[in-house]
Amino acid sequence: xxxxxxISQHFTDSIRVKQEAMVLAAPLAAACEKMTHSxxxxxxxxxxxxxxxxxxxxHFAAELVGRFEEERQELAAIALTTDSSILTAVGNDxxxxxxxxxxxxxxxxxxxxxxxISTSGNSxxxxxxxxxxxxxxxxIVALTGHDGGKIGKMLRDEDIHLxxxxxxxxxxxxxxxxxxxxxCDGIDSLLLGT
Length: 194
Fold this sequence. Notes:
- There is one protein chain.
- By secondary structure, the chain is an alpha/beta fold.
- The chain has a single domain (about 5-190), classed as Glucose-6-phosphate isomerase like protein, domain 1 (Rossmann fold).
- Helix content is about 55%, strand content about 10%.
- The protein has eight helices and five strands; from the N terminus they run H-H-E-H-E-H-H-E-H-E-H-E-H.
- It has helices at about 5-20, 25-40, 50-65, 85-95, 100-105, 125-135, 150-155, 170-190; strands spanning about 45-50, 75-80, 115, 140-145, 160-165.
- Strands 2-1-3-4-5 form a five-stranded parallel β-sheet, sandwiched between helices.
- Helix 1 packs across helix 8 (about 170-190), helix 2 (about 25-40) crosses helix 8 (about 170-190) and helix 5 (about 100-105) runs parallel beside helix 6 (about 125-135).
- The N and C termini lie far apart (about 45 Å).
- The model has no long low-confidence stretch (mean pLDDT about 95).
């Protein structure tokens, strides 16, 4: 396989996984409704993840605080991945597994939503954030892949699990970005009545 064929295969594989992930449309719509309900009730959405998933958490929060495709009011979203002083202090004093959980306990309240992103579903600090959010009576929307990992097993009936049906990290992350854009569009659609 030459380099052009290898690159073409990435496109083919990405298209296939995205088509297979269309089974997530109904739970994705439910996630949009839960997030919108929270925002309309003066709630907020906290988002977390590691590496590329941290970037996705930040991307999501930026789309809500700024705008996605339509002009609208600012929406309350916080990426728990951005405050280097909190991340380094908590990581140093309590361990890296606590960097999101302590923020969830400090900032999250009943009726808020945690967007928990983990490609493998096994990120320890994201799992601890979910446990903290559940203790704070928050709803969880989890983006995972493959079999959902430990996070998939932690979720309650009222939580929403958006598990990408793929094993390859790059493909899962590509679909996570699509899911995030669908969440942003769905929230805007519900808020703006479009």
